[in-house]
Amino acid sequence: MHRRSLAAFGYGPKTLARVLRLNRALDAARAGTAFAEVAALAGYADQAHLAREVKALTGVPLGRLLA
């Protein structure tokens, strides 16, 4: 499964799940939803968890990413 995911998407299955969850969260944030609500809707424990995940996956802070 890991090899197929890597070949198809460029990520292993765990990283792919993280990226897809982050994309859902960013779509909601771009629609104007508050960060705390975005975090809850996307399945993050809290806004800080969302912010750490954004920084880990993109290398850019959440506020700058959406600016």
TrEMBL record:
- What does the record give under GO molecular function? DNA-binding transcription factor activity; sequence-specific DNA binding
Q: Which UniProt keywords apply?
A: DNA-binding, Transcription, Transcription regulation
Please give the superkingdom of this protein's source: Bacteria
Q: Where is the HTH araC/xylS-type domain?
A: 1-67
Q: One Pfam family from the UniProt entry?
A: HTH_18
Q: SMART domains, from UniProt? A: HTH_ARAC
Q: Does the keyword section mention Iron-sulfur? A: no
State what protein this is by name.
Answer: AraC family transcription regulator
